[in-house]
């Protein structure tokens, strides 16, 4: 435990100030790691050798967001020599690049610094909201340590890169907080922006569906009046429609009904070739590609069983039913549509409520060890997924 005088000072400090200090200290640590790696980074498809921070923070898919912000989306889909749809900007939703573009227009700043500033601002907002979310299900001390883990988790460098994750986590955290507070009407605009920032409408609709069923089944002990039923059902339908909004927009703009899914499938073609999108098959395809058969299939099956068991672990149960509904819904969504590769780690970030379970043990040695492991995890992720080594095939 912390010394008594430290605990007294923390209790007297406004909650938001404590969170801001945690966030700022974590950004110093992460920025230091990024600069160390940038110093030894060789020339690559995006930068020269030893790039500055802003340039290094805008490699990989950040360039696609830059293209969207400056040039928009192609009306004609690119076609490979084999006749398949190639990689293009339709895979990247407009929410984040639109905000960065606004900052560029207002301030005159170029893409790279504007993107980093926007990501940092949303990461601070998401951290503040995460503390409020954890307070709904945890005590103050545990909620504060959960915030520490949120700020130092292995993938947090991406929260200050030119990626949409910071903005998405901000709106997702806000949506989860509103769900726990049962402020259904306010979810409409939040879901609309969230679903145009990262693919999320269908997963959140499923979580809302679980929520409605649970409230209906427990209505005798927890009243579920007709007005709330109607509003909750309406926002669930809206979230589901929001999940289809971007594919429909891509269809209208390009004339191809499968423009969005074909574009997404182009990214997995280097692993398994061009195939149709068949829900709930990609993880088994990935398991077979990475580990062969039958080992890959067995490992995927064990992962599914392990994840289901995790949702019923005592520490996770203490997070409450609604956060567990989100974890289950998002897990089902990923299992249905995503092909596992190095981006899997980033795609798991929306499961951040699990940090509230990891934060529960109060022993100081445990907490120090977890923080150290997280920071080491940041360095490992930067080395494996962000730094570019020749013709790199481990995108973040």
Automatic annotation (TrEMBL):
Its main location: endoplasmic reticulum. Keywords: Endoplasmic reticulum, Glycosyltransferase, GPI-anchor biosynthesis, Membrane, Transferase, Transmembrane, Transmembrane helix. It is a multi-pass membrane protein. It is found in: Endoplasmic reticulum membrane. The chain crosses the membrane at residues 12-38, 111-131, 143-164, 184-210, 230-253, 288-313, 325-344, 364-388. Pathway: Glycolipid biosynthesis; glycosylphosphatidylinositol-anchor biosynthesis. This is Integral membrane protein.
């Amino acid at each position: 435990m912390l010394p008594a005088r430290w605990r007294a000072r923390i209790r007297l400090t406004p909650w938001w100030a404590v969170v801001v200090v945690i966030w700022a200290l974590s950004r110093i640590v992460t920025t230091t790691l990024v600069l160390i790696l940038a110093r030894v980074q060789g020339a690559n498809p995006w930068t020269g050798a030893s790039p500055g921070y802003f340039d290094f923070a805008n490699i990989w898919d950040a360039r696609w967001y830059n293209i969207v912000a400056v040039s928009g989306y192609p009306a004609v889909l690119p076609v490979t020599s084999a006749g398949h749809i190639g990689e293009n900007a339709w895979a990247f939703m407009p929410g984040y690049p639109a905000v960065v573009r606004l900052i560029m227009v207002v301030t005159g700043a170029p893409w790279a610094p504007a993107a980093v500033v926007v990501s940092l601002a949303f990461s601070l907002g998401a951290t503040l909201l995460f503390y409020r979310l954890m307070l709904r299900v945890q005590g103050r001390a545990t909620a504060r340590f959960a915030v520490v883990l949120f700020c130092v988790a292995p993938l947090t460098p991406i929260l200050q890169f030119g990626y949409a994750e910071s903005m998405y986590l901000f709106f997702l955290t806000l949506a989860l907080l509103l769900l726990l507070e049962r402020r259904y009407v306010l979810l409409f605009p939040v879901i609309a922006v969230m679903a145009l920032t990262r693919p999320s409408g269908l997963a959140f609709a499923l979580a809302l569906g679980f929520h409605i069923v649970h409230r209906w089944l427990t209505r005798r002990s927890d009243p579920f009046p007709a007005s709330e039923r109607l509003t909750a059902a309406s926002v669930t339908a809206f979230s589901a429609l929001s999940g289809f909004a971007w594919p429909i927009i891509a269809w209208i703009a390009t004339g191809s009904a499968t423009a969005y899914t074909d574009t997404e499938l182009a990214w997995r073609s280097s692993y398994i070739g061009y195939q149709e999108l068949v829900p709930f098959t990609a993880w088994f395809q990935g398991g077979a590609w990475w580990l062969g058969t039958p080992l890959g299939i067995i490992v995927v099956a064990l992962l599914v069983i392990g994840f289901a068991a995790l949702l019923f672990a005592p520490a996770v149960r203490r997070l409450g039913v609604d956060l567990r509904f989100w974890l289950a819904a998002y897990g089902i969504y990923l299992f249905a549509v995503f092909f596992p590769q190095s981006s899997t780690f980033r795609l798991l970030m929306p499961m951040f409520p699990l940090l509230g379970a990891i934060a529960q043990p109060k022993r100081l040695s445990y907490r120090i060890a977890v923080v150290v492991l997280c920071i080491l995890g940041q360095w490992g992720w930067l080395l494996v997924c962000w730094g570019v080594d020749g013709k790199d095939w481990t995108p973040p």
